[in-house]
Amino acid sequence: MFITNPMSIEDRSMEIIAPHLEGLNFREEEQKICARIIHATGDVGYAPIVKIHGDLMTAAKMAILAGRNIFTDVEMVRRGISIRTFSKFGGEIFCKISDVDTRELAKREGITRAMAAMRLFGKRLDDHIVAIGNAPTALFEVLRLIREENIRPAFIVGVPVGFVGAAEAKSQLAAQNYVPYITIEGTKGGSSVAVAAINAILYMLDGSRGYNEK
What we know:
This protein is α/β, with parallel strands linked by helices. 49% of the residues lie in helices and 10% in strands. The chain has helices at 6-17, 28-41, 56-65, 75-80, 83-86, 100-109, 113-121, 136-149, 166-175, 191-206; strands at 50-52, 70-72, 93-95, 129-132, 155-158, 181-184.
C-alpha cells in the first residue's frame, strides 16, 4: 500500500528527513529550508553542507514582504519558484540568460551568458534577491559587483552545481559578510536546490504547506 495524497506524501517525507537535521545547530526556520532542499533532491547528504547566514531569515522576510524582485541565473530557477505564492507579495522574477543584449555582451567580452546577465542586471540587484542555481560564473560576477561596485542584494541563494568553479564561488560567498546568503559546500547544488530554498522561505511567510512564519 502506498500514499496517494500529495500533502500526506510531503508530510511523511519531512518526518523521515527530520532526524537527519538533529544536532546541526539549525534554528527552526533554517531547518525548514534545509529540509525542503533534502526533499527536493532526495539526498540527506545535504544536511551538514547547507550553510545559512545568521541574518538570512531577517533579510528574507524584509525583502519579500516589501515586494522585492528575484533575479535568477537560468530559466529553470525562474520557472521553479512558486509564482502563485511569490506574487502575493508583489515582486517579479527576472532572468536574462536568453536575451539578445546578454548574448551580445557575452560574445563581446568573452564571458559566459550567465555572467553577462548578472553584469547587465547591475544596480537593479541592489536591495533585491539573487537566486543562482546553475552557473558558478554568475555567482562570481555577483560577488565582483558586491566587492567592486558596492552593490548590495537583500540576500543571495547561491548554490551553483558542478566541478569547475562551483565550490570556489560558494566558498567566496560564504566568506563575505556584506550580504546574507544560503549556500552549499562543495560541488553539490543546482537549480532544484535554489528553487527549494526560495520556496521554503515563501511558504513560511505565506503560512502555507504547513510552514508557519515565526
